Amino acid sequence: MKILCYGDSNTWGFDREHNCRIQQRWTKVLQSLCAKDEIIEAGLNGRTTTFDDPYNEHRNGRKTLPVLLKQHQPLDMLIIMLGTNDLKNVFHASEFAIAKGIRELIRITRNPYLYEFDYKPPKILVVVPAPIHPDYKENESIMADFGDRGYEISLKLKDTYKDITDEYQCEYLNAGDFICAHNFDCVHISEESHIILAQKIKEKIEEIRIQEGL
């Protein structure tokens, strides 16, 4: 299968503790676990679902997704893991607004006019990002960017995302069921969590492969 992984810094593999890119990021680990598949990395630090960041240009996921879908067609699967940056105070978005952003990305992906020849829209797996770590109040920069409200909403995304994926019959995986954000900065996940996430996504891919005969 050809799989596009669309996400933010937790897909790009940002390691804030060491200010570098994690080599054992989940997309790379997933490629090693799914050796016969083609895993395409499309992570961007600061990417949102549909919001324009006034401080960082070109972070709106809605605007860049169509280009990537056309560039890499034909695709068998799209994995979306976004929403953490939507929690920032600057957007003041509710859990419902963030879930609507995911809905918009699903709608874009399902648009048949994006695809040439007889290519069809890919299967969609939505991964709910791990919530903000509860130690966030001890980190001044994270507290300033996300605050109490961002933390509380991060805990609610698993439910609003599930409603959207049920409505649009997409595959669903809640990362918070098995990993958490690193307590160093309370937003990014550790290398160990990347490895666990890759394994769980691989298991989900195998389920989908059997269901769809891929």
Automatic annotation (TrEMBL):
It holds the Pfam family Lipase_GDSL_2. Residues 5-177 form the SGNH hydrolase-type esterase domain. PANTHER family: SGNH HYDROLASE-TYPE ESTERASE DOMAIN-CONTAINING PROTEIN (PTHR30383:SF29), THIOESTERASE 1/PROTEASE 1/LYSOPHOSPHOLIPASE L1 (PTHR30383). Coiled coil: none annotated. InterPro entries: Ester_Hydrolysis_Enzymes, SGNH_hydro, SGNH_hydro_sf. This is Arylesterase.
